[in-house]
Amino acid sequence: MEQMDRHRNLMHMCTNTGNFPLQTKSEIAEQIQKSAALPLDEIWISGETEYPCLAILVNGANSCLTYFEKEGVMWLSYGTRQRPVLFIAGGVEWEAPADSVISTEDAIACMETFFETREKPTCIEWQLL
């Protein structure tokens, strides 16, 4: 399956440390884990077009996702954390509300679904922005 993914899926990933053209879910998951090990990182993942796009803010084991369906249509992850979590978004520190924070493991699962479907992942709940 991974070999088939390599031929039909080229994803573009942009982080605070660089831009990466990646062809497999495992390559993207590895980069997300590297980003999670940094103090704070912002990740953007898209295919050959600008939309749809998945943005993942990471701070260790915590993540906050935004799914951009098309221009002007955005969804924010819905989580059940007990307190807000600090992230970096657009180069600025941002405290995400507790109800938007999910685990980085769940963020990776969402990326895997997005990689396969290019649609809003159904493995978590979402809030329309």
Can you walk me through this structure?
The chain is an alpha+beta fold. 26% of the residues lie in helices and 42% in strands. The protein has 3 helices and 10 strands; from the N terminus they run αββαβββββββαβ. Strands 1, 2, 3, 4, 5, 6, 9 and 10 form an 8-stranded antiparallel sheet that branches. A two-stranded antiparallel ribbon has the order 7-8. A hairpin with a 6-residue loop joins strand 3 and strand 4. Helix 2 runs antiparallel to helix 3. The longest helix has 14 residues. The radius of gyration is 14 Å and the shape is globular. The N terminus is likely disordered.
Which sequence of SSEs, written as H and E, runs from N to C?
HEEHEEEEEEEHE
Per the principal axes of the C-alpha atoms, what is the gross shape? globular
Mean pLDDT: 90
Determine the number of helices (DSSP H or I, runs of at least 4 residues): 3
Sheet with the most strands, sense and barrel status: 8 strands, antiparallel
Distance between the termini: 35 Å
What amount of the residues lies in strands?
35-45%
